[in-house]
Design a protein that fits this description.
Blueprint: E1 3-7, E2 10-14, H1 20-26, E3 50-55, E4 58-63, E5 74-76, H2 80-96, H3 101-109, H4 132-141, E6 147-149, E7 156-158, H5 173-177, E8 184-188, E9 191-195, E10 199-205, E11 212-215, H6 216-226, H7 238-264, H8 291-294
Parallel strand pairs: 1-5
Antiparallel strand pairs: 1-2, 3-4, 3-5, 6-7, 8-9, 9-10, 10-11
């Protein structure tokens, strides 16, 4: 059953279990968010997705990435209260990552140029504690190789006891979802390093071009799940996969054209029907068998 609500006066429909942020994005309404990713559960860490909702005549600020839609809900994304709260949150984030190009670009859209707060972490880290890397490692990969450690201004993301974790598979999912580019993959000779978590794993290279693909533990896990028939999924890099797919498509097209040409070519030893013989016309009412209609080859 469709749920009806309004976003900035625009009537929209949503499905149960959708959040305000998801519905707003489907409707083309821009709401900033740095900690949201469809692959993991909503966390509401960055607080940039704040909106104002009205339920039974009462308004309040909520995080749109966590707030479920309900029938008759009124959502406001650009009120002065909302924009003021977002600017305040942005100043807090800039204090953690003052030199981040991604964050500064978003800050300009919100009208924030500098943070009035002192820096609370090293500028080169640029981590805003969004939690995406932690959640994707635990929920999607199932490794839980990293987590939040410490409290207050000392809070950060890292492996247990600040040492390289044996649970890390080297999949690179943490780097893929990081909105700030803080998590980086560094390829060494025969090893993959996950920065800044100090995790190192052996590397699997493409069997065609030799380019590094992923960590060996992750490749072995994928092989175990997919089986030997689909093991090639972790044996080729993306470029070689595309080249192999293009070559297979080309061969399939050539084979299809050859089959069509063969099907249209008449048998060489098939006798022509009477209408096709030179100087003869077909005789209506003839009692003789028609070789063309019966597909009989001439002896």
């Amino acid at each position: 059953m469709a749920i009806r609500l309004t976003i900035d006066g625009q009537k929209v429909e949503a499905q149960e279990e959708q959040t305000v942020l998801e519905v707003a994005r489907e409707a083309g309404v821009w709401i900033p968010a740095l900690c949201h990713h469809p692959a993991v559960s909503p966390y509401g860490a960055c607080r940039l997705c704040l909106v104002e909702v009205e339920v039974r005549g009462r308004r309040r600020l909520v995080t749109s990435c966590c707030y479920p839609v309900q029938d008759g809900l009124a959502v406001f994304t650009q009120t002065e209260k909302v924009m003021g709260a977002r600017r305040g949150v942005m100043e807090l984030l800039l204090a953690r990552a003052p030199d981040s190009p991604t964050l500064r670009e978003l800050a300009e859209k919100l009208g924030v140029t500098e943070s009035r707060l002192p820096k609370v972490t090293e500028a080169e880290r640029d981590c805003i504690l969004c939690g995406l890397c932690v959640n994707v490692c635990r929920e999607v990969i199932g490794a839980a190789a990293i987590s939040f450690v410490e409290r207050g201004v000392e809070r950060e993301v890292g492996p247990p006891f600040d040492e390289a974790s044996d649970a890390c598979l080297g999949c690179g999912a943490c780097a893929a979802v990081c909105p700030m580019g803080t998590v980086d993959l560094r390829w060494h000779e025969g090893e993959l390093e996950i920065v800044p978590f100090k995790n190192r794993v052996p590397v699997v290279r493409c069997r065609e071009c030799g380019e590094p693909i992923t960590g060996l533990p992750y490749a072995e896990q994928i092989r175990a799940r997919l089986g030997e028939k689909l093991a090639s999924a972790v044996e080729l890099c993306p470029t070689c996969k595309r080249n192999a797919a293009a070559l297979a498509q080309k061969k399939a097209g050539a084979a299809g054209r050859a089959y069509v040409h063969h099907a249209k070519t008449p048998y060489r030893d098939q006798a022509p029907c009477s209408s096709e013989r030179p100087g003869r016309a077909s005789e209506p009412g003839s009692d003789g068998p028609d070789r063309c209609s019966q597909g009989v080859r001439a002896k």
